[in-house]
Design brief:
With 137 residues, the protein is of the alpha+beta class. It has helices at 6-16, 57-67, 95-104, 124-127, and strands at 27-35, 40-44, 73-82, 110-114, 119-123. Strands 2-1-3-4-5 form a five-stranded mixed sheet. The mean pLDDT is 96. The protein binds tetrahydrodeoxyuridine. Residues 22, 25, 27, 29, 45, 47, 54, 56-58, 93-94, 97 line the site of tetrahydrodeoxyuridine (THU).
Amino acid sequence: MISVNSKALLALAEEARLASYSPYSGITVGAALLTATGKVYRGANIENASYTPTVCAERVAFFKAITDGERDFIAIAIAGGENGKPSKEDFPPCGVCRQVMTEFCKADFRVIWGNGDKITDKTLGELLPFSFDKNNL
Ligand code: THU
């Protein structure tokens, strides 16, 4: 079983944040997704002039990994905040991203956010209890 270094994973999310395309909100978000084989997939938020096609950093990281054939995930770190400023302590994933995580991860999947001063480390089960998934179909 692979161990998770929250600080190191957050540092990779912070690096991924630099690739954010967010001219409309000015909020830059980076994500670093750790697979069971120890690979890390990065994502950043990508906005659109039509607003609703905007995709969050977490989903970009997941979709890159999924299309690479990855199916086994351990943790994701998220770093977000205003452009040009350090990431905020409180930048939990949105509900849509939690639902996407639920499609591919078990309840013990770890979701980490924050910065060097304060790190929050939760399980997906804590963030989305009573979730709707394939077992409900
Ligand atoms: N955003 C993310 O990338 N991840 C989240 O979990 C929440 C929001 C992005 C979407 C949009 O580009 C900006 O942050 C403001 O909502």
